[in-house]
Design a protein that fits this description.
mainly beta, 10 strands, single chain, five-stranded antiparallel β-sheet, 1 helix, Immunoglobulin-like, about 140 residues
Length: about 140
Amino acid sequence: MKKAMCLLLLILLFSFNLVPEAFAVNLSGVITPYYSYTNTTKTDLYISSSGLATATGNVVGYQDKTTKVNMYLYLQRYEGSNWVDIDSWSKSDESYRLTLSSTSYVSKGYTYRVKAYYYVYSGTDYESIIRYSNNVSY
């Protein structure tokens, strides 16, 4: 009965276009979003022993479809119960791939992450993707 209700709910969501992304199941059984213009994204954070944080974003589209990529990276610190932006960078290129790597010194005693916004274009049409790095305590 539960399976039938879930299936009915999914059918309704798809029929009313309430699901913003398509999904695919890879060979290992992991469900991942499927994008039309974006092949891969990678968002990383590394903090050295001296407190130098390196935020990196990488996006690769499709050479025959993707025409432009915009990227916005936000270095965030966890304070209390909120993630607070402490630095940000952006980059854009009329290409199907883009990498941005920037640095900032951080304070000890906090947990940090990078929040990335990727806007991947095909002509005037685009898709937006939000990704997070791993959390790093310093």
